[in-house]
What we know:
single chain; 520 residues; alpha/beta; FAD/NAD(P)-binding domain; 2 domains; five-stranded parallel β-sheet; 16 helices; globular
Amino acid sequence: MSSEKKHLLVIGAGASGLPSIRHALLYPNVEVTCFEKSNDIGGLWNYKPHKTDLSTVMKSTVINSSKEMTAFSDFPPEDTMANFMHNREMCRYLKNYAKNFGLLKYIKLNHSVVSIVRNDDYETSGKWKVRYTDGDGKENEKIFDGVMLCSGHHAIPYIPSPWPGQEKFKGNITHSHDYKDQRGYEDKVVVVVGLGNSGGDCAVELSRVSKQVYLVTRRGSWVFNRLFDRGEPVDMVFNSKFQMFLSQTIPAPLVNWNFERLLNLRFDHEKYGLKPKHPALGAHITINDELPNRIACGTVRVKPAIKSFTENSIEFEDGSVVENVDEVLLATGFSFHFNLVEGGNLIKVNENKTDAYKYMFPLATSDHNTLAVIGLIQPIGSIMPISEMQARVYLETFAAGRKLPNREEMKADVTAKREEMSRRYVESRRHTIQVDYANYMHELGDLIGCNPDMRTLWRQKPFLAWKVYFGPCVPYIFRLNGPNSWEGAENAIWDVSYRAERPTNNKLERRNGGESKKQN
């Protein structure tokens, strides 16, 4: 490892930027700086009640992945934090993380990046020239050896092409990015377009105060609850090394059949007008605990795709018409681009498709791999541990000199992933950066040698090995060995069950070894 300091820029102090700073600090030869555009840290999870171009959640948003599967690998959440945290708690967790590891002094708030271009000596050095405005609005320029783009992909609303007659519509049309809460929607007829997580959440929330909510979905969706049998968080049940083995061994049609069977035991998707043509794992899943109840109550009614607008009504593809529509809420997803980097001419994006190795190293900059995109994935599972793992991979290459595959090998991997995605998922701009949590974490872990050494564990610590293999694939298992392993990882793994049960059972006591017992 070179003794010369490398200057690294992290752009964004949210759920991807914070672990990037934290892991950069583990390398003595890295001097890290973070530019955060807003006046606070937390990114998406720092709720913004005003209209903004920045990414933000709704006022009522709770996380869709459980706290243990969402945590960073060396910072287990507090015992009493809810398994599915409200955005306030999620933001508090991020701020506690930053405080615990002393990250705040490396973050420059109200610093906005204007442009990133290859430096004059880039061909030999891989350096980047960054122009930015500081807190006083003054424009500055600085050279960095490496850049980590951690600004997320939930800031640029995707607005579909206008429907016939839309220009005549007298009601309001708003994207879900700008939806804050239910105020202003009382006693109105609302049409929510899109059945992703945002669309489901908006429809459920508005159904309590609006006159009527119509939920528009072109193809339907399989709806998962946050909780599985016996109230276990669903991601802690289905994300394990054992489940990963099963999914790689059992034919995909059988895996999908079993998932559909389980989901239809909760409610029959066909009876509720939600059953899609694609299999359960053929599209990004929708997480919603209340939607079938709201449909059963009639406060949410499911509609097919929109055909056209009039001044006050909407006609749907099945010929039905809803009159006196007041509000249309577009939960139609987001777009992303890399216009900051040489005006978008270097790293090209087409319909949310871009060529990037492991979704983080753009092929356009594979000559040096000193620029990486962190958090540009849509996982079935939590994004935060994946962003942290991506940061670890980048820093092992940037600071420790670990070799990556050559450009041709990277290109072959990108092509293979795209082909695999087209075979599994329905064609959609939301499925261009789709990954499975456990598989992708292990894929990244392979690159830096931090996947659990199961042979050694089975031989030396068989009970821990059992927990690691059959228990949830929590982020702590990737700190048992490999670069920058963490001595607290084993205890964090043993304590998972206690921390998951403690928020809903205050009579629970911790035993040695992380087991728990109930008080009489």
